Amino acid sequence: MNELILKYGCNPNQKPSRVFMQDGSDLPVTVLNGKPGYINLLDALNGWQLVSELKRETGLPAATSFKHVSPAGAAVGLPLTDVLRKIYWIDEEDTQLSPLACAYARARGADRMSSFGDFISLSDECDADTARLIKREVSDGVIAPGYSEEALEILKGKKKGNYVVLRIDPSYQPEALERKMVYGITFEQGRQNLVIDDHFLKNIVTKNHSLDAAAIRDIKISLITLKYTQSNSVCYVKDGQAIGIGAGQQSRIHCTRLAGSKADNWYLRQSGKVLNLPFRSDIGRADRDNAIDVYIGEWPEDVLADGAWQRVFTERPEAFSKEEKRAWLDTLQGVTLGSDAFFPFSDNIDRAYKSGVKYVAQPGGSIRDDLVIERCNDYGMVMVFTGIRLFHH
Question: Which domains does the chain have, with CATH numbers?
Answer without folding.
Answer: 3-168 (3.40.140.20), 194-268+329-385 (3.40.140.20), 279-318 (no CATH)
